[in-house]
Amino acid sequence: MAKRSAIKRLVQQMCAAGMLMCSTQSFAAAFQLYEQDGATVGDYHAGRAAEANNAATAFYNPAGMSRIANQQIVFGDVAVLSDLKYRGSVSVNTINAGVPVNVVNQGGGFSTIPDLFYVAPISDRFAFGFSIAAPFGLKTDYGRVSNLRYAATATELTVVDVSPSLSLKIIPQLSIGLGYDWQRFGAEFNQDAFISGFNAYAYNKAWSSASGFHMGALYSPWESTRFGISFNSQVVHHPHGTSKLIGPGASFVTGIPAPFGQGNPQAIVSQQAYTRVTLPAYTTLSAFHQLNNRWALLGTAIYTRWSTFKTLTLSNIATVNLNGFLPVASNTGSLTLTENYRDAWNFSLGSEFYATDRATFRCGIGYDESPIKNNLRDVRIPDNNRYAVALGGHYQAIKQLGFDVGWTHLFVPGHTNITPPPLTVGAQTTVTRGYMQTNADIFGAQVTWDIV
Questions:
Q1: Using CA atoms in the order 81, 412, 186, 36, what is the torsion angle rounded to 10 degrees?
Q2: What does the alpha-carbon distance between residue 60 and residue 299 come to, in Å, rounded to a whole number?
Q3: Which residue in 142, 316, 368, 397 could disulfide with 107, CB within 3.0 to 4.6 Å?
Q4: Which residues lie across from 347 on neighbouring strands?
Q5: Taking the model in full, what pTM does it have?
Q6: CA distance linking residue 287 with residue 298, whole number of Å
Q7: pLDDT score recorded for residue 267
Q8: How far apart are CA 360 and CA 352, in angstroms?
């Protein structure tokens, strides 16, 4: 009983700590994330649903928890340094009658993705797991240094997934697992407006909670080989929040003119902003095979049902419309973006070299297919098909404590064209025509603690 109480307290503390620390933004296909723990950064998540060598399997494939012999905690962080440079033109109908202006702008930056996992064997056949991870996330920020601010300033999406899970060993070679996913979703969608000779700044933020599930199976025909399959369900969010239009432009419309940078501008505010976001279901297939006492090969294929993501509509947002030539404030505006994503694949192939009983080296390569169609790609998610190379390693300092580090470089050969449909919000229409140069470096680190 004392041991069970200790486990319960530990899980409660982990949940509280994870909710405080998890704020995720990253660089991935559309806004899907693949690296939920520091170790998989070193081989670009090759074999993640089949290797099952630490507590992170509670999220990747809960069936793998049957392989964890003792209570185990994994905690770490993944850091992303992205380089997103836009070159092209921007035209805004409220400025110079929509004459294109040349623009060069950087939208990348630095972000972190913390993670936390726990597994406890209950019996010879059952195991309990708990995970706090980020399956989706995004951040781009172009600031206000150019006219690109009228297409986008800061865009951010954060999804924190909290999941208890169970596994059952049916026979020594076959296990299954099931997890419940509770998600906290947050989004920010900002840009500037130009109203009657003045700037205004639009801030749109919304939050929601929703739930889904994930399940998996792990089959090991012999000790050196494992095959894993996992499925993560679709989760539909209905975020609600606040939309604000502030600054001199908003002040002018609301009847309190103020010179740029002076006064206390009045805002146009909506407290009833809302939208609907469908996070897609995805299926993971993985294999692990140990060739000999020195080498192992790993592979993963992930299929994501992005085709469920058709449009994104922001409703009841703060805007300015035209009544003839007179600008009129509104808190019931709307913005619809046509997405029409297509289903996409992600592939990774990796290798592990067991240099000593304590040291393991990893490497991996991969291909990430973008779900975004060329004619619908915009600067908020300047996604394209990309390639990955990865290096990493594990060091078992003592029996109870191991450390992992990893590095992945993601790159898009050449450049990515940006030619989306015109963006219309209220009386303002913005057109971007150019290209992006994109790449990112991902760094991962984690600690694995076996409680024995």
A1: -70
A2: 14
A3: 142
A4: 301, 367
A5: 0.90
A6: 6
A7: 86
A8: 7
